[in-house]
Amino acid sequence: MRVTIADVAREAGVSKTTVSRVINLKGEVDGSTADRVREVIADLGYVPSSGAVGLARGSSRTVGMLVPSLAWPWMGEVLQGVVDTVEAADYGLLLFTCNRGAESVERFTAQVSARAFDGLVVVEPENTLEQLTALHRSGLPIVLIDDRGHHPEFPSVVTTNHEGGASAARHLRAAGRTRPLVLTGPRHFGCVRDRLAGFLSVLPTELVVDGDFTERGGRLTVEELLATGTEFDSVFAHNDISAAGVLRALRAAGRRVPDDIAVVGFDDIPMAEHTEPPLTTVHQPTRQMGEAAARLLLSHLGGTAVPDEPVVLPTELVVRRSAP
């Protein structure tokens, strides 16, 4: 049976109003009484309703986070950055995913209606930007991580995808590579378009293949190109997962990396250090992006005006043995 505020009040010999004041840090209770109430709360294992506490305090002291899926390889780092920041500010975190499509969005919307959190950090799920914009216009503070080129009207934290692509190209060009293959991600992502444009601005190539960010996609693309006799001396894959598939296909075909073909990825997820050979890649500061987004949201909740332009964090090329 759930312990209620009435149970705490009866056990402590005080009114429910006194218990509520102790819980909500109102300060109108003398020290000895407050201590006795806290002891009873601990003894009974009473957990106050976050909604009730938020109503009393004027906020829930909780931040929401909406993401497409936790299966994305870099999502854990982004989430950790958000968690570290909100917990340090004595906020809680409610995490919502869109694994079940419309059902997930409906559940999330119900929590918004119940005012279960004060503001929202978002890694945009597909086809939700219009709804998120409406929520922002209705007064919900929102910060977006990686705007995918959509440039929303609310604050965002982005990284230098164009420069990241350019840095990969400069590195391959300096190594004497002249026939690169670029394996993109889905073109409707702004980050993909930016990475491609950055690369082509430094090292033009007509060998550009649309990929899907999967290991299988990277492997099959290289297998098909090798089977048709297509020549290339390097690969720039738009994420580390597809780059791992490229490495696997090259190894199976007897091509030496990097002697015959150099490979560069993007993201610098933990796996990149453990491929064979270890993967040269463009480091995306995913944890720092989560931290920056959470700080921006908390500052906004504290009354600070948000910047008009996105917060931009730099990428950095990390050189390993796949493209020294």
Describe the structure.
The structure is a single chain. The chain has a six-stranded parallel sheet with strand order 2-1-3-4-5-11, sandwiched between helices. The chain has a six-stranded mixed sheet with strand order 7-6-8-9-10-12, with helices on both faces. It is built from twelve helices and twelve strands. The protein is of the alpha/beta class. The protein folds into three domains: 44 residues, 434 Repressor (Amino-terminal Domain); 127 residues, Response regulator (Rossmann fold), CATH 3.40.50.2300; 125 residues, Response regulator (Rossmann fold). The chain starts with a helix and ends in a 6-residue tail after the last strand. About 2% of the residues have low confidence. 44% of the residues lie in helices and 15% in strands.
What order do the helices and strands come in, and which of them pair?
Elements: H1 5-12, H2 16-23, H3 31-44, H4 50-57, E1 62-67, H5 75-88, E2 92-97, H6 102-113, E3 119-122, H7 129-137, E4 142-145, E5 156-159, H8 161-174, E6 180-183, H9 190-202, E7 208-209, H10 215-227, E8 234-237, H11 240-252, E9 262-267, E10 280-283, H12 286-301, E11 311-313, E12 316-318
Parallel strand pairs: 1-2, 1-3, 3-4, 4-5, 5-11, 6-7, 6-8, 8-9, 9-10
Antiparallel strand pairs: 10-12
Helix pairs in contact: 1-2, 1-3, 5-12, 8-9, 10-11
Summarize the structure.
The protein is of the alpha/beta class and 324 residues long.
Determine Rg (CA atoms, Å).
25 Å
**CATH hierarchy class name of the largest domain:** Alpha Beta
Indicate the overall shape: elongated
Give me the side-by-side strand order of the main sheet: 2-1-3-4-5-11
Distance between the termini: 63 Å
Helix content: 40-55%
Estimated share of beta-strand residues = 15-25%
Q: Low-confidence segments, ≥5 residues, pLDDT <50?
A: 50-57
User: Mean pLDDT across all residues, rounded?
Assistant: 89
Number of helical elements: 12
- Return the CATH topology of the largest domain: Rossmann fold
Structural class: alpha/beta
Write the CATH homologous superfamily of the largest domain.
Response regulator
